[in-house]
Every structure is written in structure tokens, then in C-alpha cells.
Recover the amino acids of this structure.
């Protein structure tokens, strides 16, 4: 049990917990953003969601796709595809005993890249801005995975 207490007191683990919380809140905000775009553009994917606007044929016109709603959804999906691996690999990385400065560099680049990726996706900014933001975050996750595999390789 003493090892768990040491882990929680570890500066690297606290940094991991901080930056993971930031990207998880950012990802949760994408759900709210999607709902906002659905409501303001009256574009729903489920019939029961249109009940506020009437019944029958009147409500069916709100069962549609909207380019702006789909853009937000794609940004949210991209978050899921990139933040979930960061959480798992980042935890293993934090447990591998990296230097605090190196860990902070990894975590900060990833969080900054994901925030900029969302801004580039929703604005939308011209390419390659979004692609470079994605690549930076992806490279961080690969770098952390490399550290984990080379630190405690049990293959």
C-alpha cells in the first residue's frame, strides 16, 4: 500500500492526472458542443429528439444531417481515437519513471496539440494546421509508448 501512496505523491503522476483531466474535460465539452449545434441547427438523428418540434411529418423534417453538426461530431470522434490511447499509454509512461521535465513536455505538447486540433477543426483553419496538430499529439503518444516498451520490455 505504501507504493500506491508514493505513486499518488509522485510529481510525474500528478502531472499526468492534471493533463489527463484537461483533455478529458475538453473531450466532454465536445459532447456539449455537438448538442448545441444540433439544437441551433435543428438537425437530429433520432426521432424522439424531434418531439419538441412537433409530431409526425412535421417532426420528420428535423431528422437530417447538417454539415456543421457532422464537423463537430468528427472532431469528437477524433478526440476519442486519440485521447483514449493517450490515457492508457500515458499512465504506463508515468509509471515507467520518466524525468518530470520530459513527462511535462510530453503531456503539455499533447494537450496543446489536442486543443489546437479542435480549434482548427471547428473554425475551420486551412490544412495542414489540423493535420500537424494531430501528428504532434500522435507522435507524443508513440514516444511515450516507446519509452514504456524500452524501459520494461517483457516480450
Amino acid at each position: 500500500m505504501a507504493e500506491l501512496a508514493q505513486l499518488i505523491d509522485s510529481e510525474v503522476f500528478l502531472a499526468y492526472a492534471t493533463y489527463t483531466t484537461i483533455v478529458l474535460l475538453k473531450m466532454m465539452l465536445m459532447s456539449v458542443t455537438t448538442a448545441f449545434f444540433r439544437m441551433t441547427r435543428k438537425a437530429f438523428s433520432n426521432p424522439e429528439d424531434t418531439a419538441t418540434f412537433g409530431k409526425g411529418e412535421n417532426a420528420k423534417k428535423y431528422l437530417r444531417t447538417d454539415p456543421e453538426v457532422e464537423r463537430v461530431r468528427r472532431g469528437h470522434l477524433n478526440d476519442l481515437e486519440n485521447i483514449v490511447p493517450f490515457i492508457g499509454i500515458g499512465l504506463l509512461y508515468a509509471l515507467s519513471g520518466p524525468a518530470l521535465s520530459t513527462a511535462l513536455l510530453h503531456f503539455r505538447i499533447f494537450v496543446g496539440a489536442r486543443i489546437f486540433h479542435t480549434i482548427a477543426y471547428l473554425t475551420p483553419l486551412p490544412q495542414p494546421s489540423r493535420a500537424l496538430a494531430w501528428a504532434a499529439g500522435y507522435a507524443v503518444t508513440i514516444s511515450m509508448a516507446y519509452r514504456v516498451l524500452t524501459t520494461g520490455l517483457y516480450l
